[in-house]
Design goal:
single chain; alpha+beta; Fumarylacetoacetate hydrolase, domain 2; 2 domains; five-stranded mixed sheet; 7 helices; 18% helix
Length: 282
């Protein structure tokens, strides 16, 4: 069973997604918080799933009958990782760094599935990048790489954007190039680690593809990352605390320059399919 947020009467509400369809948490367990981030607590999520298992089928709607939005909009922080696939580093005539090339994105960048990704007027070369996202499930500080995945709630599908022409002016412009509104799209579902490991056995077997206008431009597997998820979690937890709902966007197999009207997708088989359209800022 997966966690998402859907739009109901103009407001986002957390929901579960399972074999029987989609059900709002407020219909399953009205006593629980109406906030998806609060449901990342292990005990609370267990209450949600138990309530869903007991619920009648009438509570569930087909996924095609609901509107998904971003799972949540106010994480403490979003870490992005640059040049983490060796092939992508080569695309940019760069060498994959021996330590993570990380940056922080503000929550103002967040949009959900099918919400437009906007090319800012300051950029003439904006790229879209499919990525696997790691969702932190509990407070995480100074953890070892061996223990790091114990702090993960689950994974999700991400479209991360870059004003590449701004970044090429000067590598110190990374924060500016990554932080325009709509430059972080994620969802529609958060997949619990238990399901991920049951399906794949290890995160390294997950495959990520960047797709534009139906063409699969670049695909790679997590095993080909320079810094794999457990290493990224441990590294960043030694820098600062990670909190429930924090997201680590683990890097892209390839960035694609986009234009007004393009349909862009992050495809991660067994995890999710995230799509959006691109429009130029007027």
């Amino acid at each position: 069973m997966r966690l998402a947020s859907i739009v109901r009467e103009g407001r986002p509400v957390p929901a579960v997604v399972g074999d029987r369809g989609v059900a709002a948490v407020e219909d399953l367990a009205p006593q629980l918080p109406a906030d998806a981030m609060a449901l990342l607590d292990e005990k609370t999520w267990s209450e949600v799933t138990a309530s869903a298992e007991r619920a009648s089928s009438e509570v569930f709607a087909p996924a095609d009958n609901v509107v998904f939005t971003a799972p949540y909009r106010r994480p403490h922080k979003i870490w992005g990782i640059g040049l983490n696939y060796r092939d992508h580093a080569a695309d940019l005539s760069e060498t994959a760094p021996d330590q993570p090339a990380s940056f922080i994105k503000g929550d103002h960048t967040i949009v959900g599935p099918d919400e437009p990704i906007v090319i800012p007027r300051q950029s003439e070369r904006t790229t879209v990048e499919a990525e696997l996202g790691i969702v932190i499930g509990r407070y995480c500080r100074n953890v070892s790489e061996a223990d790091a995945l114990d702090y993960v709630w689950g994974v999700t599908t991400i479209l991360d954007q870059t004003a590449e022409d701004i970044l090429r002016q000067n590598p110190r412009f990374l924060t500016r190039a990554k932080n325009f509104p709509t430059f972080f799209c994620f969802g529609p579902e958060l997949v619990p680690m238990a399901e991920v490991l049951e399906r794949f056995g290890a995160l390294e077997d997950i495959e990520v593809s960047t797709v534009v206008n139906g063409d699969q431009h670049r695909t790679n597997t997590v095993a080909n990352m320079t810094h794999r998820p457990a290493s990224l979690i441990s590294f960043h937890s030694q820098m600062m605390p990670l909190y429930p709902g924090d997201i680590i966007s683990t890097g892209t197999p390839g960035a694609i320059v986009v234009a007004d009207g393009d349909l862009v997708e992050a495809v991660i088989p067994g995890i999710g399919h995230l799509k959006s359209t691109v429009r130029a800022e007027s």
